[in-house]
Amino acid sequence: MKEVSSLTHIMARLRGPKGCPWDRKQNHRTLRPMILEEVYELLEAIDQGDDHALREELGDVLLHIIFHAQLARERKAFDFRAVARELADKLVRRHPHVFGRERLTSSSQVLKRWHQLKQEEKPARRSSLDGIPRHLPALLRAQNLQKRAARVGFEWPDPSRGIPAKIREELRELCQTKGRGPSFARELGDLLFTLVNLARHRKVDAESACRDAAERFARRVRLIENALAKKGLKTTDLTPPQLDREWKKAKKCKSAY
User: Fold this and answer.
1) What mean pLDDT is reported for the chain?
2) What percent of the chain has pLDDT over 70?
């Protein structure tokens, strides 16, 4: 594509001897936190349903892909063409029901076959859990670990009974710690991990559910703060019962959902 070729040339010039001092200073590691930030901004654009922002954020993520490919090209490792070629080959290889003669009729069949092909491509992986990045957000990583483990038999015989019972058990153990030290943190982690398992079985993305809850909390706090500001008050001026009443009022507002 002409546009992609133009992008790679622009990036090469930015990294060149007469290019941008900031761009020339970067490496794979310095760019690492930035691409993560760009991906989160992309997710926000998706959540907002804003096509203009979506287009812009997709471009920002693409910039990082072009940047990393240029860095690899300078090391004579690979270039952007190799990245695109490998992706194209992978898409064809992992869709034998589209580009080959296999017959898969449901989404679940496609997903199962995808994982089989992926496993065949990476024989060096010894554990079913290999390949799940350690740096994923905690809830997302927990859910991915549970999904992988379930494929090899680590699953509740009766999730509708087992998981609620496990939640009660973990909550009981958490309350018994009566402290804030390592034991409390460990039991809290066990409870959160079990709640993620519940989310997985209910077909809910735990990371999104927690993020949505955080957003609802933020909207309600701002709603209360704005309402009180009109009266010349702050949340710290209220007693706990008064603040609780304001919270209940905020929960009833449609804008708080």
Assistant:
1) 91
2) 98
Q: Is 115 exposed, middle or buried (0-12, 13-18, 19+ CB in 10 A)?
A: middle
CA distances from 240 to 50, 222, 244, 245 (A): 39, 17, 6, 9
Owner of token pair 């060096």: 124
pLDDT exceeds 70 at position 256: no
Please state which of the four CATH numbers 3.10.129.10, 3.90.180.10, 1.10.287.1080, 3.20.20.140 is assigned to the domain occupying 138-204. Answer: 1.10.287.1080
Across residues 2-27, what is the average pLDDT? 93
Looking at residue 179, what is its pLDDT?
Answer: 76
Note the residue count of the chain.
257
Residue 187 pLDDT class (50, 70, 90 cuts): very high
pLDDT at 257: 62
How far is it, in rounded angstroms, from Cα 233 to Cα 189?
Answer: 38
Confidence at residue 51, expressed as pLDDT on a 0 to 100 scale: 96
Treating both helix axes as pointing N-terminal to C-terminal, what angle do 51-74 and 2-14 enclose, rounded to 10 degrees?
Answer: 60
Amino acid symbol at 53: A
What span, in angstroms and rounded, lies between the C-alpha atoms of 164 and 254? 31
Structurally, what CATH architecture does the domain formed by 2-92 represent? Orthogonal Bundle (1.10)
Residues of the chain with CATH 1.10.287.1080: 2-92, 138-204
Q: Higher model confidence: residue 253 or residue 99?
A: 99
pLDDT at position 5 is: 85
CA distances in angstroms from 151 to 19, 199, 202, 236, listed in the order given: 50, 17, 17, 51
Element (H, E) at 2: helix 2-14
* Residue 131 token pair: 């390949």
